[in-house]
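Onboarding guide, step 5: your first structure request.
Type a short instruction followed by the sequence, for example:

Predict the 3D structure of this protein.
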Amino acid sequence: MPSSASTIPDGDLVWTRMIGTSAYFEQAQGVAADTTGNIYICGGTDQVLGRGYVGPAKKEDAWFAKYDPDGVLIWVRQFGSAGNDNCDAVAVDNEDNILLVGTTSGRLTGPVAPKQSPNIWFAKYTAEGKRAWARQISAFVGSTPDIATDADGNVLVSGNRYRSSISGLVGGGYDAFVAKYSPAGKRMWIREVFGIGGTDFSYGVAADPSGNVLLTGMVEVLPRPADGTRLSDGFVAKYSPVGSQLWRHRLSTEGGENGTAVAADQLGDIYVTGNTTGAFTVFYGWADPFLAKLPAD
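The system replies with structure tokens like these:
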């Protein structure tokens, strides 16, 4: 259950809060804030975390919680299927609606019955914690999905699928994809980054001020070098609001790279972070984080 730590009046730490049970499996995966400073966190648990639980007591459930700016817990919501469920990321739109994405090995919502395990689910909730809609994609997950929103309240979902049948996609291996949905949950478009051949994963999605969609992840290097180095490159891809791929850029060294998160500033310049086993500037060790800036165009 919720607990808190003492504040430090003269330090940088304002407050700390904990939420949990005696469960073996309990984790927080994502955090976001709304326009009035309320904070949302999400994750997974295998116990009943708090009020608002929906579903049978079993395996692993997804949950999310709302705190006010002072760290007071407002509510907790927990839900699950007959399988294992988790919430991997949370975002908040300009109207303070809550957007969640995660994975499930069961069936959480909608007409799509999972053919593989796990699958991607995503949902929209009001600021009061009431579900507006939810969707599930039958896509065997090979990477953690992500979610974001643009200035118009459209919902952006990134993920990965493996030989699963998704309308609008044609690749047959591990393929990174990004999809755009309307504020009402209607799919507007879905795109693969590289398509048929090789392996690629997506890890982060964002929107710039013009509504363009940004995606980052990793792509397999083919043909593979004989010495076993440079197995993957990081990538950043940019799509127009209507889903046209404007450009795609690889982030590569003599080692291996993957992009893990992406963001844009008010000018549209792009920032991506990730990991490398090579040297963009200086090689510090086996695996190092990197930060890169790309121009809007």
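Each response can be followed by summary notes, for example: The first strand starts at residue 3 and ends at 5.
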